[in-house]
Amino acid sequence: MPNLILLSLLAAFPPLSTDMYLPAIPTLQMTWGISLAQANLSLVIFFVAFSVCLLIHGPLSDRFGRRPVLMAGIITFIVGSGLCAMADSITILILARVVQAAGAAGASALALALTKDLYDGVQRQKMLGYIGVIMAFCPMLAPTLGGLLLKVGSWRMIFVLQGVLALAALYGTIRLKEPLEEFTSGGLLSVAGRYLTVLKNRNYIIYAMAFAVVVLPHFAFIGGSPAIYITGLGLSEQTYGIYFGLNALGFMLGSLTCTRLSGVYKPVHMLIGALITMLLAGSVLMYLGGETPLSVMIPMFFITYAVGVSRPISNNLILDQVETDIGAASALMTFLIFMVGAFSMEIIALDLGKKIYVLGVLAFIGALIPLVSLLGVRKKA
Fold it and tell me: What is the pLDDT of residues 30-58, one digit of tens each?
């Protein structure tokens, strides 16, 4: 299996685990008589468990190799998917999602580490962009596919399909030649202590924390879009999947733009342009208020476009700050992204006012903080 396909499959575990399941949330609310906040816990707890497990898989892969840790993670994900399909209450579903998240974390964390292992410089930035393009098909296709499965069968089929798709990644991992040549040493305490080395890297920490905030509106939209489109604006599950997919198209086009312009424009200039676009789109979202599906979709399209442009560049920028403990560094930066994501998904589920306005505020904050941090670090340098 070509490296690009395998890396894309590994990076796609989180969106496959969430976006395909989104159309089923209103169904679960009605079936089990639960609130949106309770149903969203199956998303939020997934991301919390996923984020914590990232911190385990990263340094373990530095110690024992990428391949064995990947295989264990994917097998765990397949088992978790089966448990989700058999859940008969929100409590059991949440517990099964924890198992699923533990497996997905291995795939997601090591996708970045493998990119660092296999590619350098502009080539790595382009590869991250290509992965972003392919990954975008997951949130474009997944909600629509989830909606179709709900139409012809049960929500349980969504988790069965997730487990089947993971088998392809398992096949690619089995055929993967171990890329790591130098391994860390020591026991569990020594492995965990590798994070101390990573945390001492000032520029890495500043960039990793600042650019994690970029995903605030992205994950808030994932968590709040069923309530916005289906409950609030009265769209069907199938039509919701189309609108959600159009926003995901923005992410794909952003990643494609990044790939095409890499080596043509300076990465920092592209990054600043993406963040300014996100600032403006967030302001428009707050002003329009989301009275119609288009008034939600169009500003969110530009927000996800900006995220798509910025992610390959910012990930490459962060990885450039480290030369050792790549697994731990990749795990930590992914951990920060998904903890921010879990926070934003719970924020959008709370009754803090109109959800569209909250999305606009999160987009504004998500662009402003990394923009200020980027300019500040460059000025000091």
Answer: 888 888 778 878 888 887 888 788 888 87
SS3 sequence of 159-175: HHHHHHHHHHHHHHHHH
> Phi and psi (nearest 5°) for 353?
120, -165
Q: Which residues of 332-344 are buried (b: 16+ CB within 10 A; e: fewer)?
A: bbbbbbbbbbbbb
CA–CA distance, 129 with 227 (Å, rounded to integer): 31
Instruction: Give the lowest-confidence range in 181-195, 258-272, 339-353.
Output: 181-195
Q: Collapsing DSSP states into helix, strand and coil, what is residue 262? A: strand
At 233-248, the pLDDT tens digits run 888 877 887 887 787 7
| 89: nearest Cα among 141, 34, 48, 44 | 34
Q: What's the pLDDT at 77?
A: 93
231 touches 284 (CB < 8 A): no
CA pair distance 314, 204, nearest whole angstrom: 11
- In whole angstroms, what is the distance from residue 352 CA to residue 364 CA? 17
Average pLDDT taken over every residue of the chain: 82
DSSP 265: B
Rounded Cα gap, residues 132 and 256, in angstroms: 8
pLDDT (tens digit, 9 = 90+) per residue, 131-145?
766 666 676 677 777
CA 218 to chain centre: 9
Residue type for 86, please? M
Query: How far apart (Å, rounded) are the C-alpha atoms in residues 363 and 214?
Result: 8
Rg of the chain on CA atoms, in Å: 20
Alpha carbons 316 and 325: distance in angstroms, whole number: 16
Can you say whether residue 5 is alpha, beta or left, with left for phi > 0 and alpha for psi between -120 and 50 degrees?
A: alpha
Domains of the chain: 3-380 (1.20.1250.20)
Residues in the chain: 381
